[in-house]
Design brief:
Largest sheet: none
Order of helices and strands: HHHHH
Number of helices: 5
Distance between the termini: 38 Å
Oligomer: single chain
Keywords: Membrane, Transmembrane, Transmembrane helix
Shape: rod-shaped
Number of strands: 0
Structural class: mainly alpha
Helix content: over 70%
């Protein structure tokens, strides 16, 4: 959007057409008659607001994705790390560790932080429900 505004400005929004003043005066009179400078500034302000809004939403979604990755990865990594340190090669113990890590993840997702992470990932306001 910003690129399109810059292209419009460089193509259609000229301040000086010639070295002589008559064409420039006509152009400025036309722009002022239709209040184009004010309207153009309003358009630029709206585009800047939308750009900030999109950047904020992208940032919230990235933070939410990292939060989910942390919530899922930390219990699983801890369980697998403990099994590796204990040099345990039992498949049953691996399944138990996976089940416990899923249970811990589910428990964390029910907390305020977990709801906040899920809300930001869905694109909500970022406020958890009480």
């Amino acid at each position: 959007m910003e690129r399109n505004i810059a292209a419009f400005r460089s193509t259609y929004w000229r301040q000086h057409l010639t070295a002589h003043g008559t064409a420039n005066d006509l152009l400025l009179a036309f722009q002022n008659q239709h209040r184009l400078p004010v309207r153009f500034n309003e358009i630029l302000a709206e585009a800047a607001d939308y750009s900030r809004l999109v950047q904020t939403q992208e940032s919230q979604q990235i933070s939410g994705a990292l939060g989910v990755l942390t919530i899922f990865g930390l219990p699983l990594g801890t369980a697998l790390g403990i099994l590796q340190v204990l040099d345990d090669h039992s498949v049953a113990h691996l399944y138990i560790a996976l089940a416990l890590s899923i249970a811990v993840t589910a428990a964390v997702l029910t907390t305020r932080y977990g709801r906040l992470v899920l809300s930001s990932l869905r694109g909500g306001e970022g406020k958890p429900r009480p």
